[in-house]
Specification:
The protein is of the alpha+beta class and 438 residues long. The protein contains 20 helices and ten strands. It has three domains: 130 residues, no CATH class; 219 residues, Hypothetical protein af1432 (Orthogonal Bundle), CATH 1.10.3210.10; 73 residues, no CATH class. The structure holds fe (ii) ion.
Length: 438
């Protein structure tokens, strides 16, 4: 639960910084984002105790507990803290709006002013590593964070290095991507709208589907590269149009529809092994199998990798956070794919994908007929294993335990926020179940 609260706080902090960069400090959207930051701060300190966020190495801790998901997801905030030499942020229950606004501006690099009201303290608490629960981030999680960094590099410099992108994919493959654990990474990370998270998730899901379909190592390398770069044209397209909250104007929409061509051009300009296929996938990933979609390329049969990316792109988009709508459950996303099988998507690939993820992929949260709430962990030979987080009495369990469950016992699939759990942390804690996935 505390990781969810910390996540909300960091996300709000990040949003204020983002709004400041785009709109300037007088803007209404900055005011709204600051109000959201105040609310998340109040939730974080609701117990009446101060909350201490500590940065040790590449991991963030809330009080003494490591925040594994947040450490990966908000890497940019962590890097900003490092640049500012901030080791600890202590937030008092009475944290004032102006102190929080100062903190956001400082972390975002928009101002050098420290919070002066005394309700948000920087580097006031000395953290000794021995006080903290030291648990290294898993290798795959580290690769995930590294890959985000490398994509951020692409977006910052606007120059694409195909070799660098291939290294990311090779690291994923070496780290076990394409197996259960990579599927888990992509499923439990309900990230913001940022293109890089989407790209990394699509890459992991495409590798998993490719491996499930029987592709060999060299084929997976090219598929992974193509999936990672499928939306690279988005960094060229106007940011405002991409992160638009309401209905897009015709002009913005026309811009968004240019990203396949822009992506293909960028990939071809970068030159390197695998570039022809990657460019084709970037160009074709919004084409439908019935000939619809965009851009209009006439009567053209698309590359199999484009169709794979289209399937996993849809699944990822439906289950992820978007600025204009909440995330939906994995089973909703599978319904969307089924509805589009044979028209939007390649029906064989949809069937294969559903077979691969199963109805309740790792990280999904389900309520059983008994009243228990379970985080699905693994499927083996038709048996589903999960971690019980809420007991039959409807109360959070004191000690989480594993159970086997069948689809007939499932009453509903829930969003993690509804159940008040963070599936990534739950599964990481249940190390045995994770080991079984690898
Ligand atoms: Fe796209």
């Amino acid at each position: 639960m505390s990781e969810l609260l910390a996540r909300d706080f960091l996300r709000s902090l990040f949003h204020v910084g983002q709004r400041l960069a785009v709109a300037g400090d007088e803007d209404r959207s900055v005011e709204d984002a600051t109000t959201a930051l105040e609310a998340s701060c109040a939730a974080l300190t609701i117990s009446g105790r101060e909350a201490v966020l500590s940065l040790v190495g590449d991991a963030l801790y809330l009080d003494r507990r490591i925040l594994p998901n947040v450490s990966t997801e908000f890497d940019s905030v962590l890097q900003a803290m490092k640049r500012r030499r901030i080791d600890t942020i202590t937030i008092l229950p009475s944290a004032s709006r102006s102190d929080l606004a100062d903190l956001a501006a400082l972390v975002a690099g928009r101002s050098d002013d420290l919070p002066a009201g005394g309700t948000v303290l920087l580097n006031e608490r000395v953290v000794s590593p021995s006080d903290l629960e030291m648990r290294p981030l898993s290798a795959l999680r580290r690769t995930y964070a590294d890959s985000l960094d490398s994509l951020r590099g692409v977006s910052r410099s606007r120059t694409l290095h195909l070799g660098e992108a291939q290294e990311v994919v090779d690291d994923f493959l070496a780290g076990g991507a394409g197996s259960g654990s990579s599927l888990l990474m992509a499923t439990v990370h309900n990230h913001d709208e940022l293109t890089y998270y989407h790209s990394v998730n699509v890459c992991l899901l495409a590798l998993a589907l490719g491996r499930f379909a029987g592709l060999g190592h060299e084929q997976l390398r090219v598929l992974g590269l193509s999936a990672l770069l499928h939306d690279v044209g988005r960094v060229v397209v106007d940011e405002a149009a991409l992160h638009h909250h309401g209905r897009l104007s015709n002009e913005d929409w026309a811009q968004v529809r240019m990203h396949p061509q822009e992506g293909a051009i960028a990939i071809l300009a970068a030159a390197g092994p695998g570039q022809e296929v990657a460019a084709a996938v970037a160009l074709e990933h919004h084409l439908r199998v019935d000939g619809g979609g965009y851009p209009d390329l006439g009567d053209r049969r698309t590359h199999i990798y484009s169709r794979i990316v289209a399937v996993v792109d849809t699944y990822e988009a439906v289950t992820a956070h978007r600025p204009y709508r909440p995330p939906r459950t994995p089973s909703d996303a599978l319904q969307v794919l089924l509805q589009g099988a044979g028209t939007v998507h390649d029906a064989d690939l949809v069937r294969l994908f559903i077979e691969m993820v199963g109805t309740y992929p790792p990280g999904s949260v389900v309520r059983l007929a008994s009243g228990e709430i379970v985080v699905a962990a693994s499927v083996e030979g038709g048996t589903r294993r999960g971690v019980v987080v809420t007991g039959i009495d409807g109360l959070p369990v004191r000690e989480q335990r594993m159970i086997d469950f069948g689809p007939e016992q499932v009453v509903a699939q829930m969003l993690p926020a509804e159940a008040g759990v963070d599936p990534g942390s739950v599964l990481e804690a249940a190390e045995q179940s994770l080991a079984a996935l690898r």
